[in-house]
Design a protein that fits this description.
Number of domains: 1
Protein name: Neutral cholesterol ester hydrolase 1
Strand content: 15-25%
Order of helices and strands: HHHEEEHEHHEHEHHHHHHHHEHEH
Distance between the termini: 67 Å
CATH superfamily: Alpha/Beta hydrolase fold, catalytic domain
Helix content: 40-55%
Shape: globular
Bound molecules: 2-acetamido-2-deoxy-beta-D-glucopyranose
Membrane topology: Single-pass type II membrane protein
Largest sheet: 8 strands, mixed
Pfam families: Abhydrolase_3
Family: Belongs to the 'GDXG' lipolytic enzyme family.
CATH topology: Rossmann fold
EC number: 3.1.1.71
Number of helices: 17
CATH class: Alpha Beta
Number of strands: 8
Length: about 400
Amino acid sequence: MMRSAVLGAVLLAAATSYYIYLPLPSAVAEPWKLMLLDAVFRAMMHVCNLAQDLGLAHNTRVLNYMVTLVEVRGPQSSESVRVTDTSFEGVQARVFESTLPGPRRLKRGVVYFHGGGWALGSGRMRSYDLLCRRMAEDLDAVIISVDYRLAPEVHFPEPYNDALRACRHILTAEVLALFSVDPERVAVSGDSAGGNLAAAVAQQLALDNSVSTKFKVQALIYPVLQALDFNTPSYQQNGNVPILYRPLMARFWLEYLNGDLKLVPSLLANNHTAVNQGQEAVVAAKAKMNWTNLLAPAFQKHYKPVAPCLGTPGLLEQLPGLLDVRAAPLLAEREVLKLVPPAYIMTCEHDVLRDDGLMYARRLEEAGVAVTSDHYAEGFHGCMVFGFWPARFTVGMQSMRNYIHWLQQNL
Ligand SMILES: *[C@@H]1O[C@H](CO)[C@@H](O)[C@H](O)[C@H]1NC(C)=O
Ligand SMILES: *[C@@H]1O[C@H](CO)[C@@H](O)[C@H](O)[C@H]1NC(C)=O
């Protein structure tokens, strides 16, 4: 009896550690914590896939339901931050207003877009709630965390349109006055897919002469900026690093652009950009994100470009969003980039999206825009917002401090 209990325990431990254990690059921060976090994500994914296989629901919906159940909080004000849920032109948002005592004056404002592959998460989740509270306090600011609609309910360009509509409305004199926000000190910011929306909206509003209040700065945290090359050095290097695996990012793109998820392998092979498809547009777009020119050799390492000659015909016609700057802000013309606000771009070494951010930083600099690049050699995708135990990473907390510090200095 005793013996079989011991045997059972050993087997269980072995199975668990097999499930949790994952070879990680030695330089990644706090690898055991990351493995644990990853195991939780994978377990949730398995449950979701099972639910989908049983015909119960779309797996992204199940995942979002679980995340929401565990993570979403009500709007709880504290002594120093008033929190309210509201909407701007029909787009849901949570507003965090600093209520620090002192002379009544205009405050800084930040419009924030949460990450989650345009499919997961909410500005009402604990991790984003904590981030925005802290920003409101430390910056004595009003933070507006926008809940754009998500895939699979809606697809591109709807989430982008939600983001743009909310920003236009927030930037009106009436709304700024309502929240006592200084029109000269409003930032747009976001992480991951939210960084994509922030960059895309910053470009569009810079071009739009009908909007008189402009963003002062943009702050992009490990942003997603392109879907033409799934073989940048960072995609090649970090394809198996949690939590944003390479096929998962391709899948998020396909869900966003309303494509068939069976196309993941074609995208990963860069088959959508084969030159035989001939369109000038592809050649021009690829030239704008030529990493052999845009990345420092230390980031290129030994990796080679992947440019198939034949590819899969018709992919770009099926997925026109791949070439649309509103989905892929890295593809914007230099004339547009010249107009966007000064940028803070945070990147992590152990992240498939590292080079999206690095290339954008370089293109903005070439267009004459002031850029602060903040790179974390130990960082991995998502590290900044996992602010709760056991997923609180030293590198993540450090990056959050630096991000807020940059806003203190520049907003
Ligand atoms: C990228 O730049 C290199 C060096 O300037 C050039 O040889 C190559 O053809 C370019 N590739 C693309 C896709 O534009
Ligand atoms: C990509 O295109 C090549 C032809 O260039 C083809 O042989 C290969 O099967 C395609 N891969 C996928 C995953 O579609």
